[in-house]
């Protein structure tokens, strides 16, 4: 039991000590790049009228595989780069490789920002432009009145 606690303690210390070591730029650059990619994906989702990413992932199993493919396509290379950079970091600093720590760092630097930005971007854009579109539709409908004062919709109903 003491060995397990020692391993966990060492792992936590090593994970939290990473911002002070070499290759610190990866802890800023990767989440930034993934956030930009996620925002672009959220904009694409909003444009195509898709529901938010996490909501669909958890509550619509039929869409889950498509979402995973889309997410992997967007951030797959960055996850691989995160794993490679963390492996290099570990070899330089610890002179050893800890797979679980590498996966945790890759998840925090790549997957977490993607999930946190894609869905809310979609939701914000749909809410913002959805309200504007309804206003624009109302204005367009009022401009489509005929000379006798009736709207085109009413004219089609009369025929």
Overall pLDDT level: 80
The unreliable regions are 132-147, 151-159
Number of strand segments? 0
Provide the gyration radius in Å: 25 Å
Share in β-strands: under 5%
Number of helices: 6
Helix-and-strand structural type: mainly alpha
**Helix and strand element order:** HHHHHH
Number of domains in the coordinates? Answer: 1
The major sheet is characterized as: none
User: End-to-end span in angstroms?
Assistant: 84 Å
Helix content: over 70%
Shape: elongated
Oligomer: single chain
What does this molecule look like?
The protein has 159 residues and is mainly α. 81% of the residues lie in helices and 0% in strands. It is built from six helices and no strands. The chain has helices spanning 2-16, 26-47, 53-59, 61-93, 99-143, 152-158. It starts with a helix and ends with a helix. Mean pLDDT is 80; it is low at 132-147 and 151-159.
Summarize the structure.
The chain is mostly helical and 159 residues long. The chain has one domain (22-158).
